[in-house]
Amino acid sequence: MFRNQYDHDVSVWSPQGRIHQIEYAMEAVKQGSAAVALKNKDFCVIVALKRAPSELSSYQEKLIPIDSHIGMAITGLTADGFLLARHMRRECADNRWAYSEPLPVSRLLNKISLKMQIPTQQYGRRPFGVGMLITGYDEQGPHVYYLCPSSNAYDCKCFAVGSRSQSARTYLERHLDKFSDCSLDELIVHGVKALKGCLPVEVELSGKNCALAIVGKNKNFTVCPEEEVEPYLTQATEAQSLETDDSYSSSSQLLNWLLTADELNSRRQDCNVSTRKRLAEQFRAKVEALGRMEVEPSFLTAEEELIIVKRNIFAMYGFYQQFDDPQLPADASFFIILFTFVFGFAATYLKRFYLNNSVMDYSPREMMLTSLYLAFKAADYPISLNRFVDHIPRNRERYHAFISRSELFLMDKLLYDLWIHPPYRPLVGFLVELITYRRGIDPSMTDEEATDLMNSLRKEGYEIINTWFQTDLCFTNPPSQYALAVVMELGRRYPELQAEDFVNNVVLGNVTAEVGDEESVEQKKERLWERLEAIQTMISEFDFIVDLSVGLELENVLAECRNPLYDIDSDEYKEIQKQAMERMSFLD
Q1: Could you give the CA distance from residue 501 to residue 535 in angstroms, rounded to a whole number?
Q2: Which conformational region is residue 133 in: left (phi greater than 0), alpha (psi within -120 to 50 degrees), or beta?
Q3: CATH of domain 21-247
C-alpha cells in the first residue's frame, strides 16, 4: 500500500537510494528542445533549437544573456529557467556594485547551484525542472558549464542537452580534438552540425528555429540575429553533403555491409544451395520415417527468393504508410511521429537478413513485420507492440506473438548492427545546393518558389529512394552516392533542373586531392561518373515490383517447400514448442 510513498516527496529516499522527484525533473530536461555548447581557446558558442508551441505563436527564446561576459541556454521548464536567470543577473550586478569587476564564472556557478539545491531538501517543494548550459569568458579563459536539476555543475569542454541530444554528444565526442585549434567560424559550424543530428530528417535548421550566441576574448555575450545565423547553416549543409559523413566512415555499415555485386550473388547462392540440400534431406528422412512415397517438393532458386524479398519490401512500404493515417487517436500523435528513414531502416534490415538466410526457412511476411517494428525502435521513434499490430487487418494475436518472439532473433542475425545510414539526409543536402545553384543562374526565383521546389523535389526524391530499396544499392554504394544517383534521376525527369551541370560544376568541382592519394582529381571525377552511370544502367534494367500480383505463383511454391520446423502453423513446430514448454515447466 505504501510502496510508492517515496515517489511523491523530494525529501524521502527510495529503498534503492534514489530521490525520484529529482530524476523526474531531469526527465523534463531531456524532453526540452536541444542545445549545444562548445569552446575553443578564445571563444564559447551556444547553438540551440527554438520551439513554437503552435503555428500561431512565435518561437520561444532559449538563449538568455546574464552579464556582458556570461550567457546561457535553457532546456526544460522555461519559467524555471527565467527565474534562475533573474537571480544570476542579480548576483552579477551585486558583484559589480561591490567590487567594480565582473563576477568570475565559477563563483556564479557556486552561488546558483546552492540556490538550486534548497528545494531538494525541503518537504513540499519540487526541484527546478530546467537544465542550463552556461558559457562565459573571464581571466581564466572561456568556460562551458552544465547545471542540472540535481544542482550539480559540470565543467565541460563541450556538451549537448535536451531531446535527442545523444546524436549531438556523439558528434562532439568524435570531433573533440579539433575544437581547441579551430577558428570561431569553424567552431560555429561544428555546433550547427552537432545540432542537426538532434532533428528528424525532414526538418531543416533555419534562422527561425535555430538560435546562436557567442562570447569570448574581446567579445561580449551576443545573441546573433537570424540573418547572421543563415550563412553558418548553409556552410554546415554544404560540408555534410559534399563530404563523406565521419560517422559513416567508421560505421559497421561500411565495415560489414558494403559489398560488391559478386559478393552478394555468391552469398545468396551459397545460402540457397545449402538450404535446398538441407530441406531435401529433411524431406527424405520424414518420408522414410512415415514409410510412404511422396513427391519431393520443388524448391526455390536464389533468383526466385530475391523476387519474394522484393515483393515483401513493396508490401512493407504499403503497410508502413498506414501509420501516417490522420485518423489515429489524438494521444498517439506524440508517440507515432513517423519520419522517412524508418522505412529505410526496415527495408535494409530485411535485405540484410535474407542475405544469409532463406525465405524457405523464415517466412518473409513475418520477418517483414518484425523488421518494421524493430526499425521504429532503432530510429528512436518507438511504438508499443499492441499499437503496431492494431494496423494489421487479420490474425493480430498470431503476429503479436511472433514479433515478440522473433525480435531478438532478428537482432542476432543482423549482428546487432541496427543503426543505418540511409540516403535521405545526403539527398536533402544535395537538393539544397541544387536549388542554390539554380538561383545563381536564375536570380528571379523567389524564396517561395525555391521552397515549393525544394518540397516537391524532396518528396519525389524520397519516393525514388523507397522504390530503389528493392535493388542492392544499400549494399553496393555509400549513402552519398545513392543520394547523388537520385538527384541525377530527378534531373532526367526534369531537364530544367540542369542536374548534370550541377554535378559537374558544384559536386565534382569541390573534389580535391588529399596527401597520399594514389588517384588524381580527374581520376576521382571519372570514377564517380562511372559509378553514377552504372547505377543508371542497373536501374533501367531492374524489374521493380509495382503490384503484389507479381510473384504470386512463387508464394504458392514457397508454401509447399517451406521448412516446417520454422512454420508456426505446422504440426512439427507446435510439437517442438510443446516439448520446450514441458522442459521449462519447473519454472512455474
Answers
A1: 18
A2: beta
A3: 3.60.20.10
